[in-house]
Design goal:
82% of the residues lie in helices and 0% in strands.
Amino acid sequence: MDANRAWLWLLVAGLLEVGWAIGLKASDGFRRPGISALTVLGMVASFYGLAQALKVLPVGTGYAVWTGIGAVGTAIAGIIWFGEARDAGRLISIALIVAGIVGLKLSAR
């Protein structure tokens, strides 16, 4: 696998992380069986994508970018769908995570 494909795997895995994090909230503590099953499936798929990316990418970079995509995506989803705070401090913090993700991508070998 080449590096571009590894980055694509990592992007998909990070987006799946956003999906399963939202699924955790929607599952109501795993009390909703259908959503819970989809959430667990999303977790497995996300970890699989991360594992594929780590065949090529450095583990520190891959894991940090994966969690960063998940953190940023989940925070934005929380703002949009769950009415969570969107104050300046939170938005700046999200932007700093994005800057870190971009920095790791640009410095990866």
